[in-house]
Automatic annotation (TrEMBL), chain A:
It comes from the Bacteria. Keywords: Cell membrane, Membrane, Transmembrane, Transmembrane helix, Transport. SUPFAM superfamilies: MetI-like (SSF161098). Belongs to the binding-protein-dependent transport system permease family. It is a multi-pass membrane protein. It comes from Streptomyces coelicolor (strain ATCC BAA-471 / A3(2) / M145). This is Binding-protein-dependent transport protein. One of its GO terms (molecular function) is transmembrane transporter activity.
From TrEMBL, chain B:
GO terms for biological process: transmembrane transport. Its main location: membrane. This is Possible binding-protein-dependent transport protein. It comes from Streptomyces coelicolor (strain ATCC BAA-471 / A3(2) / M145). Belongs to the binding-protein-dependent transport system permease family. The chain crosses the membrane at residues 35-59, 90-118, 124-145, 237-258, 278-302. Residues 1-30 are annotated as: Disordered.
Length: 272, 318
């Protein structure tokens, strides 16, 4: 009986499909159309012209540099997360001390701190440290704000490791270090890929820290490039949408390859 | 524990088994890492999140223009905010948008999540498209919708029967409608995922028992599925509320707080005061108010969802 199709829910999901699909169609179609075609025939019509100018236009206005900067930020954020979070999650899962549970609580509380809340003092700290308008000044806070969720996701996946394995290793006299490198790290590959995808998404899509902490074109990231492009060329909608599509391409590529890791990681966020 | 039943990771079958295993006698602490393993991450996080959090409280009692040194002014910023009509309006607008978000997204994401948890033949293909908004930056989403809803070249100009003169950004009601719609568009997939995971974890025995009793699909939904989703519902709503309180890019890009100050929510007002009017003291005070609100709400999350009990409930496993 439960296998019978649920028509009501199916209809609802089709409505959602239109709500998501239509804007995506308009965006993709507009991107390949000329500005005149878009203005004359409207956004929903089928394109009667074909051009790649909207993409080249985005590159002409500096998107190549912005892409490179975002790539640097994303790679560094992933690096910091991979360096700091696995030992942290290992301690959270395996250590019995009170200090560790205090640290775990600190990170749980940290889940609640919105970036807006600390942006003014962050601006002060980063300026005082001489990192204003420097990519490092964006990388450090972005990475810090990836830590709480990554710690939660990774410690969740490290809990799946069977206690017998630890005990067997302890019997052989293995040190925590050896257990970490020979047991925990290899067995948490799933969790590790989730936190990589998650941090990459955060870093690639980050906006507020770059907005407030950078200024010049040479440190601009893609999201800021989009924002500025909109302010400057707001009327050139196909050009603007071309830039939007370009900004999405890397994330969509990651999604195609890492859909499982991402979806499972995000599912674990709220349901527990 | 209920947290086990509503575990949102259906794919991790091994996880459930390991949870159900009786606690292994853990007699030794040999081979357990010390807290030192957690110290580098804790220090890094403290420096870039906790220290600024303390500073924002201090700065809220200071006057600072970003150039000269900050100067202590007591509760001056706070009393100015209390008398500021724009601030009061922004609190009201923040609450309005947050409530609208919860009201629009909750039923939608429960329905989509329960649907996606079932055995639909075309689900795999559809879910790829469904979840695309989840991947996009708030910036990209906002720029996209700003372009799609452009009064002259966008969809409203095409469908005047639906949108009237088409300038959705020129009036408070429609501008707020657009903001609520765009947030719903962007975040419904995320909440759908939460519900999808939770709906899959509902024990099948319950449905089998209901079927023996002759309960139909809709009775099953209201009497089994919905009550079983309760924990996830609370978590999801609280995430929506925290998200609503901190909406920023959407407003900056779609309406710039306008027309006038008609969509100036608190987070945008904070940015406006600090980084446009260079009044960092006032900005800090608004930010602190946001933190307090978000913290209270997430303390509730931690309590209700049992995040903080996770450790003790896992004691036998670790």
């Amino acid at each position: 009986m439960r296998r019978r199709p649920n028509y009501l829910a199916g209809a609802g999901s089709l409505v959602w499909l239109v709500l998501v699909g239509l804007p995506l169609y308009v965006m993709l179609a507009a991107t390949l159309r000329t500005r005149q075609d878009y203005a004359e025939n409207g956004p929903v019509s089928l394109p009667d012209s074909f051009t790649l100018d909207n993409f080249t236009g985005a590159f002409d206005s500096g998107f190549g540099q912005y892409f490179f900067n975002t790539l640097v930020v994303t790679a560094c954020v992933i690096g910091i997360v991979l360096l700091l979070v696995p030992p942290l999650a290992y301690a959270i899962v395996r250590s019995r001390g009170r200090a560790t549970s205090a640290i775990f609580r600190l990170f749980l509380l940290g889940l609640a701190i919105p970036a807006q809340a600390v942006i003014v003092p962050m601006f002060y700290l980063i300026s005082e440290a001489g990192l204003y308008d420097n990519l490092l000044g964006v990388i450090l806070p972005t990475a810090a704000f990836c830590l709480p969720m990554s710690a939660l996701i990774l410690s969740g996946s490290m809990r799946d490791i069977s206690p017998e394995l630890y005990e067997a290793m302890a019997m052989d006299g293995a040190s925590p270090r050896r257990m970490f490198f020979q047991l925990v790290m290899p067995l948490s590959r799933g969790g590790l890929s989730t936190i990589v995808v998650f941090s990459a998404l955060q870093a690639w899509n980050g906006f507020l820290f770059p907005l407030v902490l950078t200024q010049s074109d040479s440190t601009k990231v893609v999201t800021l490039g989009l924002y500025n492009f909109q302010t400057a060329h707001g009327i050139d909608i196909p050009g603007l949408l071309g830039a939007v599509v370009l900004s999405m391409v890397p994330i969509l590529l990651v999604y195609l390859f890492a859909r499982r890791a991402l979806v499972q990681g995000l599912m674990g966020v709220g349901g527990k | 524990m209920t947290t086990h039943l509503t575990s949102a990771r259906p794919a991790a079958g091994s996880r459930k088994e390991s949870r159900r295993r009786p606690p292994a006698p853990s007699t030794t602490t040999v081979g357990r890492p010390s807290f030192a393993w957690a110290v580098p991450a804790a220090l890094f996080f403290a420096l870039f999140a906790i220290v600024p959090l303390i500073m924002v409280a201090v700065l809220s009692f200071m006057s600072w223009d970003g150039i000269s040194s900050p100067e202590f002014v007591g509760t001056d910023n706070w009393s100015r905010l209390a008398d500021d009509p724009v601030m009061l309006k922004s609190i009201w607008l923040t609450l309005l948008l947050t409530v609208l978000g919860v009201v629009l997204q909750t039923p939608l994401s429960i329905l989509l999540g329960v649907w996606a948890a079932g055995h639909q033949r075309n689900r795999a293909v559809l879910s790829v498209i469904y979840f695309i908004p989840l991947l996009l930056s708030a910036t990209a989403v906002s720029v996209l919708w700003r372009a799609l809803l452009d009064p002259n070249f966008g969809i409203p100009a095409e469908a005047t029967w639906l949108f009237g003169d088409g300038n959705l950004f020129g009036e408070q009601t429609t501008a707020i409608g657009v903001l609520a719609f765009v947030s719903t568009w962007q975040f419904t997939p995320f909440h759908t995922l939460i519900y999808q995971g939770a709906a899959r974890a509902v024990p099948q025995v319950l449905y089998q028992a209901a079927e023996i009793d002759g309960a139909g699909r809709y009775r099953q939904f209201f009497h089994i599925t919905l009550p079983q989703l309760r924990t996830s519902m609370i978590t999801s709503m609280i995430l929506m509320i925290v998200g609503g309180l901190t909406t920023f890019e959407t407003v900056l890009i779609l309406t710039q707080g306008g027309p006038g100050t008609d969509t100036t929510i608190s987070a945008y007002y904070m940015y406006d005061k600090a980084f446009k009017s260079f009044d960092y003291g006032i900005g800090s005070a608004i930010a602190l108010a946001l933190v307090v609100a978000a913290t209270i709400i997430s303390l509730i999350v931690v309590r209700v969802s049992g995040y903080d009990k996770m450790r003790s409930s896992m004691e036998g496993v670790s």
